[in-house]
Amino acid sequence: MNSSIRKPLAALLAAIFAAPAAPLYAADPVVQGPESVQDWFDGGQRFIRESKQIFANARRAKNVILFVGDGMGVSTVTAARILEGQMNGKPGEENSLSFEKFPYLALSKTYSWDQQTSDSAPTMTAMVTGYKGREGQLSVNHTTARGECDANVTATKSLQTILEQAAAAGKSTGVVSTARITHATPAATYSHISVRDWESDREIRAFEAAQGLPSGTCTVKDVASQLIDASPAVRSSLKVALGGGRSYFLPNTVTDEENNRAGARRDGRHLPNEWVSTRGGPSQAAYVWRKAEFDAVNPATTEHLLGLFENSHMQYEADRPADRSGEPSLTDMTDKSIRMLSKNRDGFFLHVEAGRIDHAHHAGNAKRALLDTIEFSKAIKRAYEMTDPKDTLIIVTADHSHVFTIAGYPHRGNDILGLVKEVPNMDGQPTAPSRDNLGLPYTTLGYQNGPGWRDAIATGQKRPDLTGVNTAATSFLQEAAIPMGSETHAGEDVAIFATGPKSYLVHGVMEQNWIYHVMKEAFGF
Predict the structure, then answer these.
(1) The one catalytic residue among 120, 158, 194, 503
(2) What is the pTM of this model?
(3) CATH architecture of 64-71+90-403+497-523
(4) What's the rounded Cα separation, in Å, for the pair 230 and 240?
(5) Distance CA 339, CA 294 (A)
(6) Catalytic site residue 277?
(7) In the chain, what are the domain boundaries?
(8) 335-394 confidence digits (pLDDT tens)
(9) Sign of dihedral through CA atoms 443, 448, 454, 456?
(10) What helix, strand, coil percent values describe the chain, rounded to 5?
C-alpha cells in the first residue's frame, strides 16, 4: 500500500478508535427563563454542532449494560420527561431524560414467536439470546412444549444467554431489578424454563398436582434454585443479584423477618444461606435484605452480593422512603453493582430492570409508573458517569409497551397529571378544563383498558365528574375505556437508545432479538 493511501487510512482509523465520547448531557434546546424567537433557532444550530462531534465507535466493548424499563413505551417516556421537567419547575416538554441524549436510536418490534402483543418472558428472551421465544417461557427455544418439566428435555431446548456467554469469557456479571429477581425479565438472563411462573418449587409441585402427576415427576429446577445452582462459570461470574422475591428463596419453615410470612419453598432449602456457603463463605459472599445492610457492604472486599429487599416485588419509588426496613433505590443498586463488577479487568455484563413501571401501568396508576421511569433515568445517568463511554456499551430499551395515552390539546406546561386545559385565550387568562360531549372534564393521561374504568350503572353517569378531584394524587387511577382488573400490554414498537462501542449498530426499525446480536458483536463473541 503506497503512502498516499496509508496515511489517510491511518488517520481514519485513529479517528474511529480514539473518537471522543458523544456529548450526552447537552444544553436544553432552549435557554432557561423567558424564551426569545432566536432561542429556538440557536438551539437547532447547537444540535447540529454537537451532532457533528458524534463518531462511530468501532472498538470492542469491555463492558455491556442492558437497561430494560419494563413496559416503558414511548408514551411513558414522553410523559415521564414532562413530569420530571415540571418537578424541576419547568414547563416540562423541553426536558430530556438522561438516556434520550444518547446518540443512537432505533425502534424495536416486540412481537414474540406466538404473540402479536407479548409478555415479558419471550421479549426478554429475545433480547438476551437472539431468538424469538414463546409466551411465558424463559430462554428456551420455540419448540419447547408448554409445561415441559423434564430437566433433560429442557436442557436440549435451552438457549445460551449473553450473561452466560460473558461468564464463559471470564467477565463478571450482575442482575438488578426492582421486581422479584425471579420475575420474567431478570430471570431470562440466567434461567431456562418452560413456565415463567415456576419461581420456586412450590409452583412446580402445584403443577404436578393439577396434572395428576406424582410429586417429584418434574425434574426441572425452579427459577430461584437455578440462580443458586448455576454452572461453575456463572456461579463464579455472578457477583451481584439485587431485587425482590425473598419468599421464593426461603423454605416454608422460615418466617420472613420483615413481614412475618412463611417462605414459599417446599424442599427445605434456604437459598440465601446457600448463596453465601457456595460462594466462599462470609469472608467473600454476603446476603442482605435491609438498606442498612446493603449500605454497609464494601464493594472492594465483597465478591458476591445477594440482596432481596422484599418478600415479593420491591416498593414503587413513590413509596420506597416509607418502607419499614428501608430499600435502596435503583440508582443505589446500579452504583454498587458497577463498583463490584468493575474490579474485573476483563470487564462485565450487567442487566438492570425498572420492573415496577410495568406493574403501575397494570394498576392503571400513571403517577407511580412515571416516578419509577424518572428513577430509572437517574440510574442510567449514574451508570454513564461511572463508566467510560469508549469501552462501555449501554443499551436502554423496553420489553413491551402499555395501552397508555397522552390525549386532548393541553397547553404547554399544563400539569401532565392534571385535567386538560387548552391554550389561554387572547387576554392571557387560563382556560377552564376542556369538556367532552357530556360536558365533563378529562385528564391528559389515560388507558385504553384497565381498572380505571368507572361503573356507569353504579354512579348513574356515563363518566365520572373529575371537577375538584386531585388527579395528581399518587394513587389516582386514570380513566380506562374498557373495564379490566389489570391493564394490558400494547403491541406497538418501543424505543432503543444506545451509546458506547458498536452503538451505531442500533438504527432503524429492528427485530427485538437483534439487540442480543448488537451486544454479542460489541463483546466480540
Answers:
(1) 120
(2) 0.93
(3) 3-Layer(aba) Sandwich (3.40)
(4) 14
(5) 13
(6) no
(7) 64-71+90-403+497-523, 407-487
(8) 999 999 999 999 999 999 999 999 999 999 999 999 999 999 999 999 999 999 999 999
(9) positive
(10) 35, 15, 50
